[in-house]
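Hello again, I could really use a second opinion on something today. I've been puzzling over a protein and I'd love to understand its fold better. I'm sending you its amino acid sequence along with the backbone structure tokens. It would help a lot if you went through both lines with me. I've dropped the whole record in just underneath, so have a look.
***
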Amino acid sequence: MQGKIIDVTLDNVVGEVMNMKNDGQRLVTFSTYRAGEEQIGILYHFDKNLETTHLRLVADMDKPIPSVSGVYFAALLVENEIRDQWNVKFDGLVLDFNRTLLLDPEVTQVPLASNVKIGPKA
């Protein structure tokens, strides 16, 4: 991956995303990866004038992650996808699909989080 990488924490991720927006950065997407047995890594990808910057967050999977959808509304789609696929919750998500964005009602297990069952959908 090319570009500048900035490490962020749960405490400053929203502020750093706001800084990116104020700088005229375009939110491209997020990437996720397993960072440890009980941790998830999220890379927030930005672009300005064909130069990329990435914010890197490593967080415990059982703790909510602050949503950046209040800064970039489109982030709600990626955050809902991460919730569907990894069983990670986001605090302050502007529109929470409650695991129905990508997963059909008959899906009973979170695809990328081992041994995590999904309860019935309303």
